[in-house]
Specification:
Blueprint (H helix, E strand, L loop, with lengths): L2 H7 L5 H27 L1 H8 L7 H17 L1 H15 L1 H19 L5 H4 L2 H31 L5 H29 L2 H8 L1 H5 L1 H13 L5 H8 L9 H35 L5 H29 L1 H24 L5 H19 L2 H6 L7 H16 L3 H12 L4 H17 L13
Length: about 425
């Protein structure tokens, strides 16, 4: 069958339904990642409140905090399998409703938890349990949201629609960083550490309810309905074929995962614990990095619809390899001005956006509709579990053991070098082919 005929055979939703799906998927995804990112931005405050018994060191507490952070990431593949299978069997809509409810509940409860001073050793365990629930939810969010967005996308716009997933991740992380920066500015250090840190977590309740309402009004995707109708006549891919696609997909986005969390989430704690920056200075740097990230994502998605996913994503991976070490060295340079350092982290965020913009559509194009939620969700969750969730723990521990302040650069650049090799296996015309 020729490509035009294939394109015509794909179900095309009305524009109004596509826009509603874009809104519901994007707003819910924003809330998910605001909730998930807040923990990273308040890592040093959480360490002091939950992981610092009398006599414990600040660095030891921060390592334990990131261990809890990493644990949540390792539950994301489980969430991707659990909710992905649900999304592939009963639909994208009900799955996305469940995951936003679970994330909102877990994050709100973190804002209500007693600290170590009040509950003793039970406090870090309760926090870790809620982080696990967050991880399960986040694992299910990606597969459902990307499937929804790309399956509702008009012809030739999958890169653009898929990029909204990454864009709202950036907005969510930026919202969390902004909330932290505002609180750090208006509250004293004592108030922030005592009770102010709870406010961003508690704000997730009204935000989550808005996202839940939008998702309740969603319709199921045309691709899923068609796959349901043709299920008897179309056998699913073999387990071996699906496993190979998952591993390859994880390899293609590992650079995005590692560089993204190094520059966008781990940076505040690195600047404080390693370079001696204040909490406010670290947050300003992170806001700038996330602004650069957010600004480049949508253009990168659009460019990938025109020039292909491989060209745009490979450019981002190569740029990280070339720029990571100069960036970290610039941040360490006491003679560099604040404006120059701010510009450097802004560029770092923008480079990561070149991978994040086309990434969701690239993953969606790797899997047929019947296993898309599960396949792309597991690929993303595995890559993030290893290369994002462990970023803070690995970087903090290696800097502590070696004294080498360039560790973040080696981590991001190394992952992007491997990712570039995997991206070379992409076909140049995948963006023109209809979803299977």
């Amino acid at each position: 069958m020729t490509e035009p005929a294939l394109r015509q055979s794909a179900p095309q939703p009305p524009p109004a339904r596509s826009r509603r799906a874009l809104l519901a998927g994007s707003v819910g995804n924003f809330v998910e990642w605001y909730e998930f990112g807040v923990y990273g931005y308040f890592a040093t405050v959480i360490a002091a409140n939950f992981f610092t018994p009398e006599g414990g060191s600040d660095v030891e507490a921060l390592v334990k905090t990131y261990a809890s952070f990493a644990l949540a990431f390792f539950f994301r593949p489980i969430g991707a399998v659990l909710f992905g299978r649900l999304g592939d069997r009963i639909g994208r809509r009900p799955t996305l409703i469940v995951v936003i409810g679970l994330m909102t509940l877990a994050t709100t409860l973190i804002g209500l938890l007693p600290t170590y001073a009040t509950a003793g050793a039970a406090a870090p365990w309760l926090l870790t349990l809620l982080r696990i629930l967050q991880g399960l939810s986040a694992g299910g969010e990606f597969g459902g949201a990307v499937s929804l967005l790309t399956e509702f996308a008009p012809p030739g716009r999958r890169g653009l629609y898929g990029s909204w997933q990454s864009f709202t991740v950036a907005l969510g992380l930026l919202g969390g960083a902004g909330a932290a920066a505002v609180l750090a500015t208006v509250l004293s250090d004592a108030a922030l550490n005592d009770w102010g840190w709870r406010i961003p977590f508690l704000l997730t309740l009204p935000l989550g309810l808005v996202a839940l309402w939008l998702r309740l009004r969603l319709e199921e995707t045309p691709s899923f309905r068609r796959a349901e109708a043709e299920a008897a006549a179309t056998p699913p891919p073999s387990r071996g074929e699906a496993a190979r696609a998952i591993v390859l997909g994880a390899g293609r986005i590992m650079g995005w995962a590692a560089a993204g969390y190094t520059f966008l989430v781990v940076l505040p704690s690195y600047l404080q614990s390693t370079l001696g920056a204040s909490f406010r200075e670290a947050l300003v740097a992170t806001v700038l990095a996330n602004l650069g990230f957010a600004a480049s994502i949508i253009p990168a998605g659009l460019l990938s619809d025109r020039f292909g996913r491989r060209t745009v994503m490979l450019s981002g991976a190569v740029l990280v390899v070339l720029l990571a070490l100069p960036l970290i060295d610039l941040l360490q340079d006491t003679g560099a001005s604040a404006a120059v350092k701010g510009g450097a982290v802004l560029v770092a965020g923008a480079v990561v956006g070149l991978m994040a913009g086309p990434g969701p559509a690239m993953l969606a194009e790797m899997f047929p509709t019947r296993v898309r939620c599960t396949g792309l969700g597991v690929a993303y969750a595995l890559s993030n579990a290893v290369f994002s969730g462990c970023a803070g723990l690995v970087i903090t521990e290696l800097v502590k053991r070696t004294g080498d302040a360039d560790i973040p650069a080696y981590y991001a650049a190394g992952a992007c070098a491997v990712s570039a090799l995997a991206l070379l296996t992409l076909r140049g015309d995948d963006h023109r082919r209809p979803l299977r």
